[in-house]
């Protein structure tokens, strides 16, 4: 349940309501907007009792039960779109953001060259994995902290923010030190201990959809992060596992408008992991923007044939440059900018 305080509510009124709710045995979280304050009441089991106790208190405007299982991620809780500001760039407003780079950080020379190329094409953020959870234990697992250091050098050189995956609770402080955005990969969408840990850090989180997860399960995972106090969460649709074999995954393009209807959180699309094949990445990227996505995450590599991870789905820089020009036209057609 949420309690909306009136515009005229004083600080003491807000504190009195908060204290009363806590006296009844419920946890609270306070969200102060530009004009109004909202008190999120967690774990309500006796709705009538709560309403009777606080609805007539000074400063209370109304009480609204949240029927969705995902409370803080729901539009019932937060009707306006969440806009996340990262190094001056905003995710969730009219401007579409593009995160680009290789799947994995392979070497300093290689990564810095790619960083310069994607910036020249118009990308807003750099992607790259320093820790790579792979299906095979014999595949390249990433450079670890050395990879993070290389990414930090690329940020210093280009000014682009860094988005990189954190795969373990113990690595969260280390990744926090270097990254601008925590990435939670598809394999870790249900790693609730990791979700709660990043929720305690003041760093934006990009949460990828699990390969077999429903939209509700995905939003419930976001709820774990939000409930720990981190409001800066955006979602990434990267395709789900179906019976189809011609693509790596099946891009659920319908997830974009569905999320927009259910949740205030921004949602971007990863056409690279969805398709698994560079031949289809551009078409899916343009479809995502047309469907209302707030951004894209695209894999780019100088020489995909020699990439240590996911080369088949990586675009060459010239193809990425051409895609960015095409995306501007699509964005304009749907009232967005790039």
From TrEMBL:
Pfam families: DAHP_snth_FXD, DAHP_synth_1. The keyword Transcription regulation does not apply. GO terms for biological process: aromatic amino acid family biosynthetic process. The keyword Membrane does not apply. Residues 88-332 form the DAHP synthetase I/KDSA domain. Keywords: Transferase. GO terms for molecular function: aldehyde-lyase activity; transferase activity. InterPro entries: Aldolase_TIM, Class-I_DAHP_synthase, DAHP1/KDSA, DAHP_snth_FXD, DAHP_syn_2. Residues 1-67 form the DAHP synthase ferredoxin-like domain. NCBIfam families: DAHP_synth_Bsub (TIGR01361), PRK08673.1 (NF006421), PRK12595.1 (NF009239). This is 3-deoxy-7-phosphoheptulonate synthase. It comes from candidate division WOR-3 bacterium RBG_13_43_14.
């Amino acid at each position: 349940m949420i309690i909306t305080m009136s515009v005229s509510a004083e600080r003491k009124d807000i504190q009195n309501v908060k204290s009363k709710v806590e006296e009844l045995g419920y946890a609270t979280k306070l969200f102060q907007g530009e004009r109004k304050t909202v008190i999120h009441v967690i774990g309500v089991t006796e709705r009538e009792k709560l309403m009777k106790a606080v609805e007539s208190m000074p400063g209370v405007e109304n009480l609204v039960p949240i029927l969705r299982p995902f409370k803080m991620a729901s539009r019932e809780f937060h009707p306006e779109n969440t806009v996340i500001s990262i190094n001056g760039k905003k995710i969730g407003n009219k401007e579409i953001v593009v995160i680009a780079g290789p799947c994995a950080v392979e070497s300093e020379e290689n990564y810095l060259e790619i960083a310069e190329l994607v910036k020249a094409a118009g990308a807003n953020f750099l992607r790259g994995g320093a820790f790579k959870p792979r299906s095979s234990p014999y595949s390249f697992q990433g450079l670890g902290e050395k990879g993070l250091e290389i990414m930090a050098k690329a940020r210093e050189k280009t000014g682009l923010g860094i988005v990189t995956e954190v795969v373990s609770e113990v690595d969260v402080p280390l990744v926090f030190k270097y990254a601008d955005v925590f990435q939670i990969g598809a394999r870790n969408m249900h790693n609730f201990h990791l979700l709660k840990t990043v929720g305690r850090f003041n760093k934006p989180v990009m949460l990828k959809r699990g390969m077999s997860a429903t939209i509700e399960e995905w939003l419930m995972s976001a709820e774990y992060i939000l409930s720990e106090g981190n409001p800066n969460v955006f979602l990434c649709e990267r395709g789900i596992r179906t019976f189809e074999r011609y693509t790596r995954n099946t891009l659920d393009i319908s997830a974009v408008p569905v999320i927009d209807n259910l949740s205030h959180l921004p949602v971007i699309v990863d056409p690279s992991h969805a398709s698994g094949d560079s031949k289809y990445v551009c078409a899916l990227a343009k479809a995502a923007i047309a469907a209302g996505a707030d951004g894209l995450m695209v894999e780019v590599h100088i020489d995909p044939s020699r990439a240590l991870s996911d080369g088949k789905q990586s675009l060459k820089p010239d193809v990425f440059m051409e895609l960015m020009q095409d995306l501007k036209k699509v964005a304009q057609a749907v009232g967005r900018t790039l």
